[in-house]
Amino acid sequence: MALRDKLRTGAEPFVPPGEQVEAVIPAQTASQWWILLAWIVFFILNRYRMLVVTPTQIAVLDCGRWRVTKPKSVVTVVPRGPLGPPRGAIFHKVVIGDETLRIHRRFFKDIEAVG
């Protein structure tokens, strides 16, 4: 099963009835540079998140410290807004609620698709 399929399957229980999922985008909370400086600090600070984008909202799901494909709970739900044009060489930073999330370059096309 492809990664995007696993993400979508994991997000299904958290999608409100009647909502159509437009994109599921994985993210992380800690800067990737912590791995180069002190990898143990990265694993202490980092949490994986999953952004579930529907026509009306963006839900941020907590996936824990080790995997991004199995969400555990809802962190926040915000009204649908732009995730930006993706910027950055490797990660795009986006602020949702009170968290700064980093989205890997592999998912830049998903950000562009949802606007």
Give a quick set of tags describing it:
globular, two-stranded antiparallel sheet, 115 residues, alpha+beta, four-stranded antiparallel sheet
Q: Give, in order, the helices and strands.
A: HEHHEEEEEH
Structural class by sheet pairing and helices: alpha+beta
Number of strands: 6
Annotation field: number of helices: 4
Q: Which strand-content bin applies to the residues?
A: 25-35%
Number of domains: 1
Low-pLDDT stretches are: none
Radius of gyration: 14 Å
| Helix content percent band | 10-25%
Our measurement of the CA-to-CA distance between the termini, rounded to an integer number of angstroms, reads 26 Å
Shape: globular
Summarize model confidence as the mean pLDDT: 90
Strand neighbour order, sheet with most strands: 1-2-3-4
Main pleated-sheet profile: 4 strands, antiparallel
Structure summary:
With about 120 residues, this protein is an alpha+beta fold.
Please explain how this structure is put together.
It is a single chain. The protein is of the alpha+beta class. It has one domain. Helices cover 24% and strands 34% of the residues. The protein contains four helices and six strands. The strands form two sheets. A four-stranded antiparallel sheet has the order 1-2-3-4, with helices on both faces. The model has no long low-confidence stretch (mean pLDDT 90).
What secondary-structure arrangement, pairings included, does this model have?
Layout: H1 3-11, E1 23-28, H2 33-37, H3 39-45, E2 48-53, E3 57-64, E4 73-79, E5 91-96, E6 99-104, H4 108-114
Antiparallel strand pairs: 1-2, 2-3, 3-4, 5-6
